[in-house]
Amino acid sequence: MAxxxxxxPRFHDIWLFSLHDLPPQYxxxxxxxxxxxxxxxxxxxxxxxxxxxxxxxxxxQTLAEIEAMVSAQASKLGLTVDFRQTNxxxxxxxxxxxxxxxxxxxxxxxxxxxxTSVGLFDAIVAAEKPLFEVHLSNPxxxxxxxxxxxxxxxxKGVICGLGPQGYLHALDALARxxxxxx
Length: 182
Hints:
Layout: E1 3-7, E2 14-18, E3 39-43, H1 55-58, H2 63-76, E4 81-85, H3 89-102, E5 105-109, H4 118-127, E6 131-135, E7 157-160, H5 165-180
Parallel strand pairs: 3-4, 3-5, 5-6, 6-7
Antiparallel strand pairs: 1-2
């Protein structure tokens, strides 16, 4: 059972819910998860600086190296990936909307937008695609403002604190989810 962390109305508490506790509109099956469509692997602000930005937190691998690793794993799983990065919230929302019709699922590292963007939450709900949230570091072991995620409430699962391996775990989980739907 997946555990989700949701902000409380008072914003300083965290409520814990399982996927079964969420209202049905937040736990809908995806529209058409054809594995012939690519997995969208979407990355948010500042992830283009991986390898040089705070390596003690984010590691030394570049985003290009992570992309190569994810593409190789996808190939082993019989999947393809469309790997993207942007520093702009609106572009990330556009890509999530595009995924509704062009992707079989989404792996999302929204970076700092995780903690601030109701727009991402709304786009994910509207996309009706299975989504796994990834973070290289563990946001719950960092500053308090990073403890709130608007993405987790509508994600099938959350993988954080495992570095680049988190992307591979998310891809494996998405592949299992797609195979279970067959």
